[in-house]
Specification:
9 helices, mainly alpha
């Protein structure tokens, strides 16, 4: 199952070739997990990122129910603060990209659920992702002032923490 981290890195790359290769590795990891009944805890995250690629290719209506089911499974298994952080982020961004009836409300509910999950001493990966998601939500609501403020806070936090991926995402936000 060593291909899961590599595949996740590849599906975040800029080129179609890298993302396609990452998608292929995700499919192989998923099949291997099922066949060997091994590392099944990775399946929901694999499903979310595979579905993200399906959505990226234009099939959001097909992808979102699969993402939602994977996130719900992670929450039900008590993994919201594990793989559920990233999975929630992917679901929220996909919902906001689609923008169909109810998508913004569902995205907002997912953000609130993630924010309300108790942690002992903060969870930086969750906290920085929440900054990004809240900025995207403000943009979806058409609140340009809140969006600019939240985007800037997200960018500043990413820089302070030295999170290169988040820095790049923040800089790419309009």
């Amino acid at each position: 199952m060593r291909s899961v981290p590599r595949s996740l890195a590849l599906v975040h790359r800029q080129t179609d070739a890298d993302r396609d290769h990452g998608q292929q590795l995700l499919a192989e990891a998923s099949e291997m997990a099922l066949r060997r009944r091994h590392n099944l805890c990775d399946r929901p995250l694999i499903d979310v990122y595979s579905s993200r690629e399906t959505a990226r290719c234009g099939a959001r209506a097909e992808a979102i129910p699969l993402m939602r089911a994977a996130v719900d499974h992670l929450v039900g298994e008590g993994q919201l603060l594990g793989w559920g952080v990233c999975a929630t982020g992917v679901l929220v961004e996909t919902l906001l990209d689609r923008g169909a009836d109810g998508d913004v409300a569902e995205a907002e509910a997912a953000i609130k659920r993630l924010a309300a999950a108790p942690t002992d001493d903060g969870l930086v990966v969750r906290d920085i992702l929440l900054r990004r998601l809240r900025a995207l939500l403000a943009r979806a609501h058409g609140d340009d002032v809140a969006y600019a403020h939240l985007r800037d806070r997200y960018r500043d936090t990413a820089r302070t923490l030295g999170c290169e991926g988040h820095i790049a995402w923040a800089e790419a936000m309009p």
